[in-house]
Amino acid sequence: MISDATLWSSLPIPAFLIDADDRIIEMNSAAEGFLNSSRKSVLGRPVWDEIAIDAPIEGAFARARRDDAPLFVNDIDVGSGNRAPLQCGIQVAPVAGHPGQMLLMLSPRELAGRMTRTHSAKSAAQSAIGMAEMLAHEIKNPLAGITGAAQLLSMNLVPEDMELTDLIVGECRRIVKLLEQVEQFGNLSEPDFHPVNLHDVLDRARRSAALGFGAHMTITEDYDPSLPMAWGDADQLLQVVLNLLKNASEAADSTHGTIKIRTFYEHSFRLRRSDGTGKTLPLQIEIIDDGPGLPPAIRDDIFDPFVSGRENGTGLGLALVSKIISDHNGWISVSSAPGRTVFRLSLSRVPRETKT
Ligand SMILES: Nc1ncnc2c1ncn2[C@@H]1O[C@H](COP(=O)(O)OP(=O)(O)O)[C@@H](O)[C@H]1O
Ligand SMILES: [Mg+2]
Known about the structure:
Shape: elongated
Number of domains: 3
Structural class: alpha+beta
CATH topology of the largest domain: Heat Shock Protein 90
Largest sheet: 6 strands, antiparallel
Strand order of the largest sheet: 2-1-6-5-4-3
Bound molecules: adenosine-5'-diphosphate, magnesium ion
Number of strands: 15
C-alpha cells in the first residue's frame, strides 16, 4: 500500500487543501510549480490571495462548502502573483471527515488546445470585426450610389417595374443598417463614467421598447427602490438594455410575451481578475423573458459577433452588449430554458471618493 503522502505528491495536477477560513493548509509539488512559490511561503495564506480567478467563483465555492458538494468549473483564467494567467478547469471537493475543509484542484489546459480553441477564436472574432468595419466603410458609398440610381430609374418606369427598383432600394437600406451596426463597434468609445441611476436607464429603455420593437410585449418591473447609483456611461448602458429587450421581444411569439425587468442588490457578488485585484459588483439587473429560450446550437457562442439564431439577425447585438459591459468592468451572464431566459448584468457602485 502506498502512503497518502506519496499519493499526494505524485498527483500530476496542482492541488490545494483549504481550511474553513479559506487558508491553504497543504499543497502538492505540482501546486508549487503552478504558483511558482515554495510550499513554505504559501502555507497559511488566504487561498484567494495566491490564486486569482477571473470569474465570480467565491459564492459558488462557499455554496459547495455549505452543501458539502463537489464543484466543477471549466475554462477559467487562473493566475497568481508570479505568473500570467492560464486557462484551467477547476474542481473543488469537500474533504470527508473534515467539515469545512476543501480540496481544490486545477487542470491547466495544455497550450496547444488552448491556442486552437479559445485564444484563436477570440482573435479571429477581433479581426473579423476589424475587417467588417473596414468593409462597412467601403461599401456604404457605392451603396448610396446604387440606391440613388434606382430611385432615378424608378421615375421613368411603369408601375410593374417599380416593384424591382423598390426592391433594390429596400435591400440597400437593409445592408446599410447592418453596416451601421458593424460601425457601432468602431465608434464605441471608452465609457464616460458618471454616477448613473439605473432605474432611469431602464425606464428609458422600457419606454422606447413599448413604442417600437416591444409593442406586443407585456413589460413588468420589479425594482429595488433603494438600489444605489451605478458607476458607468448611461448612454452605453441604455444600448445594452435596449439590445436585451429587443432580443427578448424578437424571441417571443409575434403576438405576445412577457418581459420582467428586475433590479436588486447583491452585496456578495465579487469578480476576481487574473491580475489578483478583486471587485465587488453588487448592482444586479435581470431581464427575464418567457420565450422559447436560447437555441441549443448556439447557446455557448451567443456573445460572439456574427452568431445569430434568427433569419435576419446580424449577431452583433450581444457582441456589443458584452463589449460595453466588459468596458464597464462588469459581468454578464445568462441562464436559459424554454419559458424562462434570464440575462443578468452585474455592475459596480460609484467609487467612494467620487460619491455625490
Ligand atoms: N432572450 C432571448 N431568447 C432566446 N434567444 C435569444 C435571446 N437573446 C438572444 N438570443 C439568441 O441569441 C442570438 C444572438 O443575439 P444577438 O447577438 O443580439 O444577434 P441578433 O439579434 O442579430 O440575432 C439571437 O439570434 C437569438 O438566437
Ligand atoms: Mg439582437
